Amino acid sequence: xxxxxxxxxxxxxxxxxxxxxxxxxxxxxxxxxxxxxxxxxxxxxxxxxxxxxxxxxxxxxxxxxxxxxxxxxxxxxxxxxxxxxxxxxxxxxxxxxxxxxxxxxxxxxxxxxxxxxxxxxxxxxxxxxxxxxxxxxxxxxxxxxxxxxxxxxxxxxxxxxxxxxxxxxxxxxxxxxxxxxxxxxxxxxxxxxxxxxxxxxxxxxxxxxxxxxxxxxxxxxxxxxxxxxxxxxxxxxxxxxxxxxxxxxxxxxxxxxxxxxxxxxxxxxxxxxxxxxxxxxxxxxxxxxxxxxxxxxxxxxxxxxxxxxxxxxxxxxxxxxxxxxxxxxxxxxxxxxxxxxxxxxxxxxxxxxxxxxxxxxxxxxxxxxxxxxxxxxxxxxxxxxxxxxxxxxxxxx
Length: 397
Description:
By secondary structure, the protein is of the alpha+beta class. It has helices at about 5-15, 30-40, 55-60, 65-75, 100-110, 115-130, 135-140, 155-165, 185-190, 200-215, 220-225, 230-240, 290-300, 360-375, and strands at about 1-5, 40, 80-85, 85-90, 170-175, 180-185, 215, 245-250, 265, 280, 320-325, 330-340, 345-350, 380-385, 395.
């Protein structure tokens, strides 16, 4: 059994996630390495600072042109969208690994009262996409004259197209702004992505992908990455361990609520850098932080997003980004891009107990870089929180 210290496990996890410690980014295909290390790029509608899927690349490679990333994600034909963690972009070549989930969705919808309700609208959606090509849900609703309501006030047409997306009959051709443009899967995806890998084989492959992206992880970590249930994830882990792909590992300090050591596994290709201490602003939906028990175990960082918490009950702020300093989660910074004024506003900034002494300096540098990346001129902290920052400072030159 492999033995790792807590620091070694943390460095292995960061290395697996593409934090290389190098500032060199290839001019040709600058996003390829980081996207490969992520495997899934989670999407989220929140746009207080920047769309969440833009952030992991900024965290790993620094300033870049988001339009260029959009072109790479949506126009290259290399990626597609599916429920791979939450809604996420995945390599189009790996879509067959999720065919078992699509089949499960078909069975789930067929067994509910929605099946009869959505049968007719689903047929209409498929016919319109067949006749007219890709379109948004709003365009699909135009035939009935119904305007879309709130997120929770979906029409039957919207429910039908989302069902068809979940079951794999419809795919996302692209996005306009943040609106999905739906098309028939066979029309918008390459033929090789339309196949199906058998469930057990697919889940084994996904657990192996997760292990490679996590460096070292528990069963819960490995299962969460692609949202696989624990029982099939354990079966996959056992098979991968038997073939030598996963190596049983004991990590110092990793224990359950009763103090019992947690079982963990390393991918055989994982590495443990002797030194790796990156600084970065992270999105709440970065794989480093999205599974909160893992973030707490590795970084001793208790994190909860407070978007849905009533304002009087918020502790840190509406949209706090975890702050990494020297490879440790050392703070959290609430951000809001005021694009009309050209200002990156910082409603609150916090540092953790025992944060490195250079945390304020790192925070100021990363905020200046973030402002430049978003085309803003100035950073203006409001002074709330315990992380000292200047009252105003310019974006990075």
